[in-house]
Automatic annotation (TrEMBL):
Belongs to the ATP-dependent AMP-binding enzyme family. Residues 576-654 form the AMP-binding enzyme C-terminal domain. Keywords: ATP-binding, Ligase, Nucleotide-binding. Its EC number is 6.2.1.1. It is an enzyme of class 6 (ligase). This is Acetyl-coenzyme A synthetase. It holds the Pfam family AMP-binding_C. GO terms for molecular function: acetate-CoA ligase activity; AMP binding; ATP binding. Residues 59-119 form the Acetyl-coenzyme A synthetase N-terminal domain. GO terms for biological process: acetyl-CoA biosynthetic process from acetate. It catalyses: acetate + ATP + CoA = acetyl-CoA + AMP + diphosphate.
Amino acid sequence: PTNHLRHVESMKTLLSGAGNISILNAVILGEALASEENDLVFPSEKFSVQAHVPSPEKYLEMYRRSIEDPAGFWADIASEFYWKQKWSEQIYYENLDIRKGNIKIEWFKDGITNISYNCLDRHVEAGNGDKIAIYWEGNEPGFDGTLTYTQLLHQVCQLANYLKDIGVRKGDAVVVYLPMLMELPITMLACARIGAVHSVVFAGFSAESLAQRIMDCKPNVVITCNAVKRGSKTIYLKDIVDASLKESSQNGVFVDVCLTYENQSAMKREDTKWLDRRDIWWQDVVPQYPTTCAVEWVDAEDPLFLLYTSGSTGKPKGVLHTTGGYMVYTATTFNYAFDYKPSDVYWCTADCGWITGHSYVTYGPMLNGATVLVYEGAPNYPDPGRCWDIVDKYKVSIFYTAPTLVRALMRDGDQYVTRYSRKSLRVLGSVGEPINPSAWRWFFNLVGDSRCPISDTWWQTETGGFMITPLPGAWPQKPGSTTFPFFGVQPVIVDEKGVELEGECSGYLCVKSSWPGAFRTLYGDHERYETAYFKPFPGYYFSGDGCSRDKNGYHWLTGRVDDVINVSGHRIGTAEVESALVLHPQCAEAAVVGVEHEVKGQGIYAFVTLVDGVPYSEELRKSLIAIVRNQIGAFAAPDKIHWAPGLPKTRSGKIMRRILRKIASSQLDEFGDTSTLADPNVVDQLIDLADS
Ligand code: WTA
């Protein structure tokens, strides 16, 4: 204990800020914690001894260095990658304080590298070319494929050569609308190889949303496939792309080439609608190109990709990530948070259309030379045992998923889990929304046989990689807590005035100083970047999340505090759904709030005011839901339409969402102060219509 305390004392002087001190108290006094808490879950001795970070002390030592000497800490890690030219002496530059001028973050400036080279060539040249890079499992059981690192490199080079041949150059945007085929990571890596900026759009977005993104980043090339099967449904992706290209060309944005992969298991090429001057079959051109392709060396701060995400206003934000810092950060977080070992088989159930698929299907794992499983289909097809069938088939050892899937499978029944062995599993992971303790325990006890630590990773599209995450093996877990910050990350919890809170507290989650994986701007709108993330609490990056810290320093995420809702781990802006609803000719006004949902985490609850004289009807309800599907995508369809003769507004016309949230969750006696409402009768009318 004296040793521990000395450690705490020295750390207290080293690190200022309450967050850090409570972290220390918690991890160092882990044993003391155990006796007073019964909700601690300890990693087994067997797991800890083999882990990269086997103890709180080791974490502390590394964490301390990462805060005290970020340059040294990150330089050591970055040196393990291939750099054509080393970064300049000053490893990073940051201004995160809006009061001191424009926000600017740079890491490894003047370093010249290529992330595709580091994901592929580096492993092949080290003699690991025969290692499996991708196990691909199709929607239909029995339909599968594999690629070694050498084969993956060859395919990436062929596509890169084709793209170069049709004129795609460094810095050009390429929009990708593909399902979870091997061609999706291949495309990302091919773009990166030639310095093109990929913008992957989740293949569940509607034509309208796709068009919006195409019009924003103006690519010359869109890459897609004709169709895909998910579960028993066929989705005709090419039709959606056709509609979006029509729309964008009507708005003056012309795409020259639509490269289309023929996904034969879902649709034949004869059945695919075709525009000869624009559409090209992938299989007709790409395989003819050479399997080697010189790398385009890029600056660490050259853009790697754009990924659109939802904010509190209607227009999606183009989050821009650059090359060097993102590379180092995703690789490092993957390695530590999953305690990755070269013998692992890793499966992340996220789609590459979201940030999780960027950082933890493609880049993070492949930078580590990992074997990655890519699954095309639905997790409950043909039955809710499919995930564990796949785990057994490929001997998956790291399984990373979202709480919504855990809850859905939990509801389907234990028998689907227990009929499979799952003994290959070593580490489990969770992401996207807070995981409720009961789902956590089911995941831990049943799926992982009480043997596998769970890395509940908190992070965001904007952060590029994990920010607050367990390091399995290092310290005890509390079900539902994301535990402690990753190396180099300084989370702070502030009150509404931006004052850092100490000790046990609850408030807004911010981050002090930059980390290599941070996004650098919003594409074409640096001002919005500064306004949305750096102005709310000057001096910090503001995450948009609420968070509390318990007396032991563990972090507990409490959900978004802005007008963003999280439906099955998908980020949706309430304003986006509202803009879609008001496009309906019979909708006069709409207000959308999130409401607790047993499986999805949050559901979408829409209050709709109709144009004068229009009667309520089931048909109208359906057409309102349909317009949201068409404008955004099926995943954003409202769960409930609540007819609203009027909306509760202040005298200045601002909608009081607080009241709507209470009505949506049937907390009818907790409205709080309603005296500022322009018309208090509105509330009673809404309550009356709750079940209609
Ligand atoms: C939420 C997904 C609690 C959070 C990687 C955040 C989480 C938003 C967790 C980002 C977690 C993500 N616990 N909440 N482990 N992980 N979130 O950009 O509200 O799609 O702000 O990135 O998801 O969603 P995004």
